[in-house]
Structures are given as structure tokens and as C-alpha cells.
Specification:
This protein is an alpha/beta fold and about 190 residues long. It has six helices and nine strands; from the N terminus they run βββαββαβαββααβα. Strand 2 and strand 3 form a beta hairpin. Helix 2 runs antiparallel to helix 4. It is globular, with a radius of gyration of 15 Å. The termini are far apart.
Length: about 190
């Protein structure tokens, strides 16, 4: 199948505390994401800025090689340190991210360099998408140039944009709900 890399290297500045340690479904947000994806994917990594963070998560780690570039640092390190032809990135703070939808996206990618969902309003979600190893040098060049936006990599790549309806019954509008602020967490935790 493919390698999944769960991005867990953020600083949670907007949340005011480590959002991945917040309670969710009888566990934490991070543990919940790891569990869901481990059930569907054999090759699973945790992308972190600090190798010692989250010691209770028993998953292989990929540590940023060129830190400080946000998710792009995670993608860069993942493309360098994995053996498959590409990686599926999923942000750990997407509590409704569906691993079966990830498999469908990988399948729809065909020979493209990247594959991401484009919403009807034109927005894309770079942190739930598939990226081929051919993008490694572009990631490195972008980081070295101080250009940290994942969207720039996607726009410069031969990218397949997936419409939500292409995911069929797997699509749920909550799938790309990102938890950044205390009010986001309050909505999903019922507080």
C-alpha cells in the first residue's frame, strides 16, 4: 500500500496548550489519529520536530531534517526517510480524518506527483494528501529559500485535485475539520 505520516510537530500556539494531548474519544487527539490509521495502514510514522516528544506513542518517528518550516519540514523529512514511492500526510489535529478516504486518494493519484482534496469553494487541504518522492528536491529548495507554504509545493507539482464527491460514501464534510483554537475543540468535545 503506502506509507502514512502523521504530522505531530506543531507548537499549538493558537490553542495555548498541546492540542494533541487533549482528550478525544476516551484517549487523546494524537492517540486517536494513530489508532485509526494504524488499523488501515501497516507502514505508519509520526513526524515530529523533537524525537523525544510523545514518548508513549509506540510508532516509528521521522524527525525534521530542516526544522522551522512547519508541515513542509515534516513532508521533506518523510520523503527523505521512507522507502515507498510516496507518502500520505495527515495532520494529527484532523480528528475526523478517514484512513479509508486516504486509501481512495492514493488510488486516485495515479502517476501524479501530488493528490489533494479541493473543496467547492476552491480551498485545498494540503495536510490530508499524497505526495511522491519526486517532490523532495522541491521541498528542500523551498525550505532553503524561506518559502514554507505547502500550497506552493502543490501548485508547482503535477497535482491531481480530488473533488469530495470522488470519495463517494467516504466523504464527510467534517473530515477536514482542523482543531486550532479552544473554540474548535469545544465544538467537538461538547464542552
Amino acid at each position: 500500500m503506502a506509507t502514512v505520516v502523521i504530522l505531530a510537530g506543531g507548537k499549538s500556539r493558537r490553542m495555548g496548550q498541546d492540542k494533541l494531548e487533549l482528550a478525544l474519544d476516551g484517549s487523546t487527539m494524537l492517540k486517536s489519529t494513530v489508532k485509526r490509521f494504524a488499523e488501515e495502514f501497516e507502514d505508519l510514522f509520526l513526524s515530529v520536530a523533537d524525537a523525544k516528544k510523545y514518548p508513549d506513542i509506540a510508532v516509528r518517528r521521522i524527525v525534521d531534517i530542516l526544522p522551522g518550516a512547519g508541515p513542509l519540514s515534516g513532508l521533506h523529512a518523510a520523503l527523505k526517510n521512507t522507502t515507498d514511492s510516496g507518502v500520505f500526510l495527515v495532520a494529527a489535529d484532523l480528528p475526523y480524518a478517514c484512513p479509508r478516504a486516504a486509501k481512495r486518494i492514493i488510488g486516485l493519484c495515479a502517476e501524479k506527483e501530488a493528490c489533494v482534496i479541493r473543496l467547492p469553494d476552491g480551498r485545498i487541504e494540503p495536510l490530508f494528501g499524497y505526495y511522491r518522492k519526486t517532490l523532495f528536491s522541491r521541498c528542500q529548495e523551498a525550505i532553503e529559500a524561506g518559502e514554507y507554504r505547502m500550497s506552493e509545493i502543490i501548485l508547482s507539482a503535477d497535482t491531481r485535485y480530488i473533488k469530495p464527491e470522488e470519495l463517494g460514501e467516504l466523504w464527510d464534510k467534517k473530515m477536514l475539520l482542523n482543531i486550532n483554537y479552544p473554540e474548535d475543540y469545544a465544538k467537538i468535545s461538547g464542552e
